[in-house]
Specification:
The protein has 171 residues and is an alpha+beta fold. The chain contains four helices and eleven strands, in the order βαβββββαββαββαβ.
Length: 171
């Protein structure tokens, strides 16, 4: 996979409140550009079940095979122990940059990977990995959520991701 770190647009405190209440009246004050190009660990928690995803930029000229098409395509891959070790290490030492529980009682947490060496390790680890073929091949989106097959199977139905939780910033 040719994934890369990216500069993200994340919700501010008012944006997180709007996600909590499912408000649709978003404005510029509800989002901010997070400094630096990074990958993001993304944890979804629902009914005590946790699922981990890696959010990365995806080349615009490549199609993608996805489980859930959307603003950010969801891509499955075979479990990579190095990635899971990096997640455990990072999450154990740093606080999330965004955390919110939506009206469906799903908690969403994002951790920004701020160290260039860790971002380089993620890029190198995922480079030889081929996405799992799924039912839908579609046009690329600027960002993808990479989910290990074992993680994907944790939820009988995929939780909805708030559209304003994360986006690629145009800088």
């Amino acid at each position: 996979m040719q994934i890369k770190p990216f500069t993200a647009l994340l919700p501010t405190a008012s944006g997180l409140t709007k996600i909590q209440t499912a408000a649709t009246d978003w404005n510029a004050d509800d989002q901010h550009v997070q400094p630096g190009e990074s990958y993001y660990w993304y944890e979804l928690t629902h009914n005590g079940i946790h699922q981990w995803r890696l959010i990365a930029s995806w080349p615009v000229d490549q199609t993608v095979t996805t489980m859930v098409p959307g603003t950010i395509n969801t891509v499955l891959y075979q479990q990579q122990p190095v990635i899971e070790m990096l997640i455990d290490d990072w999450v154990g030492h740093f606080a999330p940059v965004a955390e919110v529980t939506d009206p469906q009682n799903v908690t969403h947490r994002l951790w920004q990977i701020t160290e260039s060496e860790v971002n380089a390790d993620i890029t190198a680890t995922m480079a030889p990995v081929t996405p799992q073929k799924t039912w839908l091949t579609t046009v690329s989106t600027p960002l993808v959520m990479l989910v290990a097959t074992t993680e994907w199977q944790k939820f009988p139905e995929a939780p909805t991701i708030p559209e304003q939780l994360i986006a690629m910033a145009t800088v």
